[in-house]
Backbone:
């Protein structure tokens, strides 16, 4: 068993070939910033290249899977130059595409809240097992933002019509709804989440590792094109640096309603 600790992201390669990647910022609901994004991308890449790793498990410490991007970090980045913002948004895009295009089977084990980019990570994984207490939300528009870089992967998972509805309304939905729409594959009681995940892992380990990679190599040819990825990066930067995006982020941090809500 090999253990690595980068504080925000913990990695472990178990003796059975399961590479575990743990989001480890529970005090802020595993929200991610540029450091965590880089660490996650690096962890996934290393596990993809490690011959000892057969399956990659993405999980989180604490009560919640991930609140998505750290709001304070996004607000700070909006004051940087356009070039810096494009580079920053590109890093998140690389994380999503790295996870989505992984040829080794990836499993997301989800508990509690998964919001914004956290749902993006879920959508990028091949198999998703959620606890019955899991909730999901594309909350970006309430902050004056848009779910840009995650959108190709969410649309692949649930389709454009459902994606549009939840992107526009920012309404939360529960684990059983997520299963019905195809975002999650299984929903189990909170106390059964660990056991069911281990059962799925055991099933995968009984399959030919090269066959599993070949399945993913085939399915990864679905059209999430470089043009689409570049468009989502551009759109994220445009909206994040806009007056509305800044007002939404400021309102969230200041615990007030944004100025587009009447009576705020």
Residues:
């Amino acid at each position: 068993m090999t253990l690595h600790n980068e504080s925000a992201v913990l990695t472990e390669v178990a003796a059975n070939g399961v590479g575990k990647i743990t989001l480890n910022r529970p005090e802020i609901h595993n929200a991610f910033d540029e450091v965590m994004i880089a660490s996650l991308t690096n962890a996934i890449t290393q596990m993809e290249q490690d011959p000892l790793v057969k399956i990659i498990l993405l999980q989180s410490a604490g009560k919640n899977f991930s609140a998505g991007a750290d709001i304070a970090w996004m607000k700070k980045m909006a004051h940087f130059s356009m070039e810096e913002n494009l580079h920053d948004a590109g890093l998140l895009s690389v994380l999503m595409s790295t996870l989505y295009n992984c040829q080794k089977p990836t499993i997301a084990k989800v508990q509690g809240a998964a919001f914004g980019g956290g749902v993006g990570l879920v959508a990028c994984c091949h198999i998703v097992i959620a606890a019955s207490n899991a909730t999901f939300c594309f909350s970006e528009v309430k902050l004056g933002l848009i779910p840009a870089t995650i959108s190709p992967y969410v649309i692949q998972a649930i389709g454009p019509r459902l994606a549009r509805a939840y992107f526009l309304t920012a309404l939360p939905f529960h684990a059983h709804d997520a299963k019905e729409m195809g975002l999650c594959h299984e929903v189990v009681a909170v106390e059964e989440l660990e056991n069911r995940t281990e059962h799925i892992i055991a099933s995968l380990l009984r399959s030919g590792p090269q066959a599993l990679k070949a399945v993913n190599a085939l399915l990864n040819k679905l059209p999430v094109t470089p043009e689409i990825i570049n468009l989502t990066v551009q759109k994220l930067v445009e909206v994040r640096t806009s007056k509305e995006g800044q007002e939404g982020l400021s309102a969230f941090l200041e615990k007030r309603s944004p100025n587009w809500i009447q009576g705020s």
